[in-house]
Amino acid sequence: MSSSDLPLAWTRFFVFMFFSSLSVGSSSASVSQPHSNNNTSTCTKMDSKNTTECSEKLKESARLGSAFKLLDSNFFSERKVLEIAKGATEFTVPIIKANRKLVASKNGGLHNPSVLIFYSDWDREQAQGMSKRFIYPSLLNVQRPKNEEDIAFMTVLELGTLIKTKQITSQELTRIFLRRLKRYNPVLKAVVTYTEELAYKQAKEADELLAQGKYLGPLHGIPYGLKDIVAVPQYKTTWGSTTFKNQVLNMEAWVYKRLKSAGAVLVAKLVTGSLAYDDIWFGGRTRNPWNIEEFSTGSSAGPAACTSAGMVPFAIGSETAGSITYPASRCGVTALRPTFGTVGRTGVMSIAESLDKLGPFCRSAADCAIVLDAIRGKDPDDLSSKDIPFGDPFSVDIKKLTVGYLEDAEMEVVKVLVAKGVNMVPFKLNYTVESVQGILNFTMDVEMLAHFDEWQRSGQDDVYEAQDQWPLELRRSRVIPAVDYVQAQRARGKLIREVKESFTVDAFIGNATDWEKVCLGNLVGLPVIVVPTGLKNISNPPSSGTRRRTTINTGIYAPPNHDHIALALSMAYQSVTVHHKQRPPIDDLGPNDTPLPQFSSPPRRLHL
């Protein structure tokens, strides 16, 4: 064999070793290794039905271990390799086969191209153009309420009017919201870090600018919170993880810079689930203000809970797969997951660069529009971001729109919009791609593992706060071939084209937390706004007679780059309803709630 043949030989050897490790019961490829009693016991505990099956699993594990050694990834314990082999057989390989079948073609380059793109432009500054800003409505006769509780639940637009008319100062507002944060956080566990010194500095600057006749817009002097995956200089950015709880990133995230330039005042870094997964973090688990026996879900747990409880007027969260829609729905707030690429992500912890999005949690859809207008635009260091020429949501003529409603839509919303003159029609999205959830998991897991490779190699996943499916999913990502990751992106492209062809309406209404729609919406890049539509009594309420409730919500979806349509429809709905104005019973916790009772955790789903 010549030296030029060596790379090919190694490639063939690796392919053999890798796929041997994924084949079930392939005795011809078995690597005979002695199995300790400890290994056999471990195998038996992992649902192996008999000794023969256990022996086969150990052989598969040994082959996989050999492949890991070849790939410089032989740092997993024998138990972890067993778990990975089991997961690859049960989950990874079926998804790989489904994606291959979906895009199979001998001349594959002509059909179902990948959604991955190559960006070669060095001159980033050329893409700095700014689209036209929204024209906000003016509020008349807004008067300062007499008590702080009423002030805390005013909208951004109302608070902005109070500041502009000098009925209240930014420093006063900052004190009010810091007091509320400190009062309710012991119950809700929604705050990681108070940025008190920075907040008063920014509030003072806002008041001084206004005294000079300089008004920066509706966010001038308005307090807010950031999900703690967003970097702010001189303050910890913990990512919710024990591993990173002392991490200080001395950089300004792009979204933070945008809000600072709009005059907003940062009062707190709010809880993210550990590594942006669910609602468990190194300080505990964040609770739902509407029913503290429930948790907020995540991973934008803090932004949802704090906005719901009137602890901040608005907050910035993020979503990869449900982290805005789920906590907003659980905590009963209005929140927008914008079109992918709307908001720059420089300085924000990345999970999956082709899925991550930042969006606002607010009191109303109008507030979501105001915050979106402040944070949108081209981030020169985020190649996926773009300056989208949205229409003005405050100027959309909704009577010219045709809006679909799915079978799971809240019919009260449909009736309200019909009364507002919207043409409502039954609707169904049609697509042939069956592995939507699998495509999302492949994409998310592989991209995140690329970022957290060293974290996993160092064994830090052993101290992960939520020891369930997430560390195991990342471990399984090691056995996803690069070819099959790209095949998943080709399948994703097919899904995008089919959804586009099926999207025959201007927008549609449906369940915001249906997992299939969460996966599809994030893969395709659909914007959705979560809108509160009511409350219902909880089952088995506590004897203390509190007002705990379960929130009811809907999602209004629009095509990519048409967030203004979803915003306009939700504003129309909220203009004649009061569901979004309801306040959770956080002052009515009941006599048995201090200290809080311990509840068994319900089965959890991946919310990122």
TrEMBL record:
<feature type="signal peptide">
    <location>
        <begin position="1"/>
        <end position="29"/>
    </location>
</feature>
<feature type="compositionally biased region" description="Polar residues">
    <location>
        <begin position="33"/>
        <end position="45"/>
    </location>
</feature>
<dbReference type="Pfam" id="PF01425">
    <property type="entry name" value="Amidase"/>
</dbReference>
<dbReference type="GO" id="GO:0050567">
    <property type="term" value="F:glutaminyl-tRNA synthase (glutamine-hydrolyzing) activity"/>
</dbReference>
<keyword id="KW-0732">Signal</keyword>
<protein>
    <recommendedName>
        <fullName>Amidase domain-containing protein</fullName>
    </recommendedName>
</protein>
<feature type="region of interest" description="Disordered">
    <location>
        <begin position="28"/>
        <end position="48"/>
    </location>
</feature>
<dbReference type="InterPro" id="IPR036928">
    <property type="entry name" value="AS_sf"/>
</dbReference>
<feature type="region of interest" description="Disordered">
    <location>
        <begin position="580"/>
        <end position="608"/>
    </location>
</feature>
<feature type="domain" description="Amidase">
    <location>
        <begin position="172"/>
        <end position="437"/>
    </location>
</feature>
<dbReference type="InterPro" id="IPR000120">
    <property type="entry name" value="Amidase"/>
</dbReference>
<dbReference type="InterPro" id="IPR023631">
    <property type="entry name" value="Amidase_dom"/>
</dbReference>
